[in-house]
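Work Package 3 (structural annotation) set out to generate three-dimensional models for the target panel prioritized at the project kickoff. During this period the team completed the workflow that converts sequence records into discrete structure tokens, so that structures can be stored uniformly alongside our sequence database. As a representative example, we reproduce one entry of 126 residues exactly as it appears in the project archive.
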Amino acid sequence: VQLIESGGGSVQAGGSLTLSCAASGLTFSVYVMGWFRQSPGKEREFVAAIHRDGRRTIFTDSLKGRFTISRDNVKNMVYLQTNTLKPEDTAVYYCAAHLATLAAAVPQTASVYDYWGQGTRVTVSS
């Protein structure tokens, strides 16, 4: 299984980036997909997740309204649209896949995710 993130970079505060994650080696449509991030000196934190059919999404409260998550089950891709970026959004962003045992589950806990990408770095300057 491979999850490969792309789309990170350096932007000024207020800018936007679209992060992409390309998945291979798994039956993508049965996996919940999540995005997490980790800033220097901090623990990895949940950003957003999307149900395997794309109909249900969950975000960490502080990011609601600025970030959106979507997926394409034909292309085996998941996306994180990040808007109105702030310096505190600076982090390495990771894509993760979880094979849910419950049909409606969209977990926010990193430890339950089965596969992880290597991350893409986002740097937001003020």
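The radius of gyration is 14 Å.
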